[in-house]
Every structure is written in C-alpha cells, then in structure tokens.
C-alpha cells in the first residue's frame, strides 16, 4: 500500500501534519516577550486585530511611556518594557537605533560636477530610542524604591475628610503648575522673577516626598530634564566622609549643583553636622540659588508664618518615659521627651538651618503646606490595630 503512495500524497500528508502541529502549538509560535508595563496584551495582535486596534487607537490614545520597574534580588530600576519598546516596531532604523545621516558633497571639476555621498551612522539617536533615554535619566535620578511609582495620580484619599481632600487636591494642582512653569523656565520662556524653589512642608507621612518625586518624574519624562533625589541626612553623611578624608566635597556636590532638578528630602533632619558640613550645604543652596536651578525641598520644619496645631505636638511632659534625649538627663519643660530627630515640632526652619540658608530659600521659594493632613501609613496601621483588637 505504501509503495502506491505518490510523492505528492506523502508531501501533502506531511504538510497536514505540520499544520496540525502549528495549530496545536499556535500559542507558543506567536508568543512574544511578555508586556511588563501594562500597555499591551500578552500576545502580539494578529493581523485582523491589528486593524481593529488601529481604528481604536484613533479614539483613545495611550501616550504613556512603556516603562516599568524591574525588580531583581537587591535592586530596583526603571526599564523599558521588552514587549512595547518602540524600537521593535521602528521602520526607520529596523531596530538598530542608529540614524543614518547622508552627506552629499558636490565637486566641480573640468569635466563637470560630481556628487559624492557619505553615510554617517549616528548610534542610538533614532527617535525610537526616546524611551531608553528617559529610562536612563530616571535611573540617574536615584529615586528611592518606595517612591519609584510616584505620579500625580498615585495619591490616596480614602483616609482624608472633605477639607483634607480639598487641600490635598490643591497641593497637587499647585505642584503640577510649578512643574509646567519650571519646564518653561528651563526652556527660557518665563519671566526671570519666577520662583524656582519649591518647599513642601508639614508633618511626617503626609505625602510631601511622594508629591516631590511625582514632580521630578514628570519633569524628566515629559521634558527630558536631568534630576536627582538626595536625602538630607545621607548627604550630610557623605560630606562627613569627605571631611574625614580631607577632601573638598566637590565630587559629591558637583552633580547636585548641576542637575536641572534637585530634590532635597527631609531637609533639616538629624543633627550631628559640623560647621564644615553646613558650609558645604550652604554652598549647594547658594549655587542653585544663583544659577536659578529648580530645587524641591521637603521638610518637617515650618517657615516662620506656619505653626503646628498644639494638639498634634506629642508633648509628653506629664509622663516622662525616658530622659535619654534630654542633654541635662531630665525632661525639659519646653520639649518634653521629643527626640532630637523630631525637633521640628518646636523648632522653626529658620532656627534649624540658620538665617543665611533660610532667607535664600524664603526669597525664591514657593511654599506648599501639608498641615493637618494625616499620615496615610499611620492611619492604615491604626485601622489594622483596631481590627486586631476586636
Ligand atoms: Zn509593555
Ligand atoms: Zn528607530
């Protein structure tokens, strides 16, 4: 029987077998890298779906960047989504990222004109590499992992009452317009008397750092600016190390002076700095003040015209639990048992950082206060305890 099968028959049965296999394994044959940014589905759309999707894309355009946070053992970093990287679909460079620049030289000789063209390759400058450049800028900003997802839409309101909700919304709007005007300043389109510092002030956990980071990310992603996040205490420690090794501190400060946007988080926190460290800090503020560089400060210390609500201040004078923090060994009447790290309850920003730095900040800074906005974390912790105690 088999000998009677023609070559054509064998070929077509093989063909059928292959088709069967392909239909069984269809899913894995068309499997593409998984989307990690949430912009597209697991599978690449088939030709028909693609047409539909193109129609839909006219109605609703998702213009967010295909960026996600890559988590490895001990590191968090921004990364371009392997499935949505615009480079993969780029017809201009076919995925290489290179741009070919043609130069045409015309030579005149006795026999007439000759054209000679040279192709210069400019690596990684194709428009499709835009997302990769943003990712690089975001990673250079050194945003702490717990704030990496910050954006203007990531604020929680469920723990706020109507008044607090309204205030929070106003704060977010103020910050958004500060970002717009900051971008305009950098691009040279705004009046020079515009404020270019922003100080976010108020209690712990009220959302200051989240709002500052959302702004930094907004300016990096929408305007391709350079930025850097630095914690005040961390910076002081770095300066201390420089001082001990008899170095100038310039290698640390240079980048902080030069970036387009700088966040100094927890300004004033900690209290073991010496004169030299304060002087370096003063240099940093002064340099950014003189160069009109966008600087965002978050702090628990209040400027002169603000005050914490008396009932928020955790005075513990009536029940001394510990006298560890009190230099005299006894709780003093003014601060009770407030630890040094929380001196902001009773000490102003002026008292904490000195007149020189304070007056510069005051002169060129806008202020947004988070007074009376409760801590989300604290409230969630309390709710958890209430649940536990039932
Ligand atoms: Zn994706
Ligand atoms: Zn390209």
Give the arrangement of secondary structure elements.
Elements: H1 7-24, H2 26-29, H3 47-59, E1 67-72, E2 75-80, E3 99-109, E4 112-122, H4 130-140, H5 162-186, E5 197-201, H6 208-223, E6 227-231, H7 232-244, H8 250-258, E7 261-265, H9 275-290, E8 294-299, H10 349-353, H11 355-364, E9 365-369, H12 376-389
Domain IstB-like ATP-binding: 128-301
GO molecular function: ATP binding
Protein name: DNA replication protein
CATH fold-level name of the largest domain: Rossmann fold
**How helical, in percent, are the residues?**
25-40%
Tell me the number of helical segments per DSSP (H or I, 4 or more residues long): 12
What does the overall shape look like?
extended
Coarse structural class: alpha/beta
**CATH H-level superfamily title of the largest domain:** P-loop containing nucleotide triphosphate hydrolases
Protein name: DNA replication protein
Organism: Fluviispira sanaruensis
GO molecular function: ATP binding
Pfam families: IstB_IS21
């Amino acid at each position: 029987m088999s000998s009677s099968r023609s070559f054509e028959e064998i070929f077509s049965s093989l063909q059928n077998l292959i088709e069967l296999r392909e239909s069984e394994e269809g899913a894995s044959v068309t499997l593409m890298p998984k989307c990690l940014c949430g912009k597209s589905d697991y599978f690449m759309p088939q030709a028909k779906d693609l047409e539909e999707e193109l129609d839909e894309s006219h109605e609703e355009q998702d213009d967010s960047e295909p960026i996600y946070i890559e988590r490895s053992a001990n590191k968090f970093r921004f990364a371009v989504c392997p499935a949505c990287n615009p480079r993969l679909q780029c017809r201009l460079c076919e995925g290489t990222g290179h741009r070919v620049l043609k130069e045409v030289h015309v030579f005149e000789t006795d026999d007439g004109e000759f054209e000679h063209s040279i192709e210069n390759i400019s690596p990684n400058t194709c428009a499709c590499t835009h997302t990769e450049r943003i990712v690089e800028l975001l990673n250079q900003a050194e945003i702490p992992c717990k704030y990496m997802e910050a954006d203007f839409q990531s604020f929680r309101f469920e723990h706020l009452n109507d008044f607090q909700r309204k205030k929070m919304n106003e704060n977010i709007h103020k910050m958004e317009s500060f970002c717009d005007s900051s971008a305009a300043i950098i691009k040279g389109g705004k009046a020079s008397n515009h404020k270019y510092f922003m100080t976010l002030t108020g209690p712990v956990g009220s959302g200051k750092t989240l709002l500052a980071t959302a702004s930094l990310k907004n300016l990096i992603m929408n305007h391709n600016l350079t930025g850097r996040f630095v914690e005040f205490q961390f910076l002081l420690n770095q300066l201390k190390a420089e001082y001990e090794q008899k170095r100038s501190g310039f290698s640390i400060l240079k980048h902080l002076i030069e970036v387009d946007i700088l966040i100094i988080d927890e300004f004033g926190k900690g209290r073991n700095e010496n004169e030299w460290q304060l002087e370096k800090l003063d240099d940093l503020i002064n340099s950014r003040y003189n160069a009109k560089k966008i600087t965002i400060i978050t702090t628990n210390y209040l400027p002169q015209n603000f005050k914490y609500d008396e009932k928020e201040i955790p005075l513990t004078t009536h029940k001394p639990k510990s006298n560890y923090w009190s230099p005299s060994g006894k709780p003093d009447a003014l601060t009770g048992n407030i630890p040094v790290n929380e001196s902001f309850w009773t000490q102003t920003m002026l008292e904490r950082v000195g007149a020189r730095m304070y007056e510069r900040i005051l002169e060129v800074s806008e202020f947004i206060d988070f007074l009376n906005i409760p801590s989300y974390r604290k409230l969630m912790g309390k709710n958890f305890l209430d649940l536990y105690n039932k």
